[in-house]
């Protein structure tokens, strides 16, 4: 290990000379005759791989030097061997408590010094290699997790687009409602009713789940799903089944998974219950109040807002301000009151999201042509 740098520290010039001559034939050597000088030399780049530190020095003794080395992030991992004429057990205990890796007693014997130095340099190199391997492994784990999350996100959107292809809504509806859910979730994260459950991780899972809210529409017949006018009572009953069919499809995916997938639980709640109303007059189960899953209540608000402000082949969009006022009147009826209040607080953010993912007239016309051709 000829490239290894050894820092020797001793206030006695004769000891420095002896150690320097002994070690220079094997290693690069830096020498310091005081504590402050030792700290400066230890901080130089490249940093030493090992320090031989005298305990008894005037001013700043070896114990204080070691304390300061360990307190500095750039030098805390450099192994330190004390060189001392002290032989009291309590002195050794103090040194080891502070972080010294070994003691060499004076008078120094060359064979002992070289053996101890070589041993601790090898240990230091082994620790460094292990640290590098751990760092590389952690980076690989992060990379693979990122790939898995990307694949998961793409798969979710691909599934959601299966329903969207046959739906009068455009693809940007998925992006807008996903961002609305994320925005509203963060806005409610400090509310006393929701703070315990809406941490940042949960909010991201909810947003990840949101695009699957209408996945059940793949099971609705074209003559109902694509009907440009008002549905008959019989047709409306069939249309409502998309909520239950979506939840059942996700439940099948859950059962087939090798282990639980967090976001699927939220996706199932959203698909099943995002058409429930706070007052109990929604579908498919007529749930009311807090009996409606939190995820579904968030999705209900996001979905209604987007439906109101979006152009459809059968209607013009409402201005966002008019949509806001219409929804405000549904506080405590269609919507959870606290969620509606949060929506009003972040209304400008909702508008910014809508503008970011706005549907162009061309996209609406293309959707209309696609659906007309399919009929």
In words, what does this structure look like?
The chain is of the alpha/beta class and 375 residues long. It has 2 domains: 5-136, Response regulator (Rossmann fold, 3-Layer(aba) Sandwich), CATH 3.40.50; 166-374, Hypothetical protein af1432, CATH 1.10.3210. The protein has helices spanning 13-24, 35-43, 62-71, 89-98, 110-165, 172-188, 200-209, 222-225, 233-256, 262-273, 294-309, 320-328, 337-345, 347-356, 361-374; strands spanning 5-9, 28-32, 50-54, 80-84, 102-105. Strands 2-1-3-4-5 form a 5-stranded parallel beta sheet, with helices on both faces. It is elongated, with a radius of gyration of 35 Å. The mean pLDDT is 87.
Question: Quick gist of this model?
Answer:
With 375 residues, the protein is an alpha/beta fold. The protein contains 15 helices and five strands. The protein has two domains: 5-136, 3-Layer(aba) Sandwich (Rossmann fold); 166-374, Hypothetical protein af1432 (Orthogonal Bundle), CATH 1.10.3210.10.
């Amino acid at each position: 290990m000829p490239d290894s740098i050894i820092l020797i520290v001793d206030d006695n010039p004769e000891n420095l000379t002896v150690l320097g001559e002994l070690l220079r034939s094997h290693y690069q050597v830096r020498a310091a005759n005081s504590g402050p000088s030792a700290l400066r030399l230890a901080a130089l780049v490249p940093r030493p791989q090992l320090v031989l530190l005298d305990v008894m020095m005037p001013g700043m003794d070896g114990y204080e030097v070691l304390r300061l080395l360990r307190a500095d992030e750039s030098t805390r991992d450099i192994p330190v061997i004390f060189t001392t004429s002290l032989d009291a057990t309590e002195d050794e205990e103090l040194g080891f408590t502070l972080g010294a890796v070994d003691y060499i007693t004076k008078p120094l014997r060359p064979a002992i010094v070289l053996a101890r130095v070589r041993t601790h340099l090898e240990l230091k190199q082994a620790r460094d290699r292990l640290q590098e391997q751990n760092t590389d492994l952690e980076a690989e784990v992060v990379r693979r997790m990122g790939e898995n999350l990307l694949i998961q996100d793409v798969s979710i959107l691909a599934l959601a687009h299966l329903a969207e292809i046959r739906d009068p809504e455009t693809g940007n509806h998925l992006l807008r409602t996903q961002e609305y859910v994320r925005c509203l979730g963060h806005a409610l994260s400090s509310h006393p009713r929701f703070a315990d459950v809406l941490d940042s991780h949960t909010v991201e899972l909810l947003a990840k789940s949101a695009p699957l809210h209408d996945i059940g529409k793949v099971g609705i017949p074209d003559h109902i799903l694509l009907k440009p006018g008002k549905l008959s009572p019989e047709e409306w009953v069939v249309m409502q089944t998309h909520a239950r069919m979506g939840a059942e499809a996700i439940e099948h995916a859950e059962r087939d998974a090798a282990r639980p997938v967090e976001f699927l639980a939220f996706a199932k709640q959203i698909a099943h219950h995002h058409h429930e109303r706070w007052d109990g007059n929604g579908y498919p189960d007529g749930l009311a109040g807090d009996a409606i899953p939190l995820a579904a209540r968030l999705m209900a608000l996001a979905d209604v807002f987007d439906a109101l402000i979006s152009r459809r082949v059968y209607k013009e969009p409402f201005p966002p301000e008019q949509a806001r006022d219409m929804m405000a009147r549904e506080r405590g009826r269609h919507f959870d009151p606290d969620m509606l209040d949060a929506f009003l607080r972040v209304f400008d953010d909702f508008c910014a999201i809508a503008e970011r993912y706005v549907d162009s007239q061309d996209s609406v016309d293309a959707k209309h042509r696609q659906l007309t051709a399919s009929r």
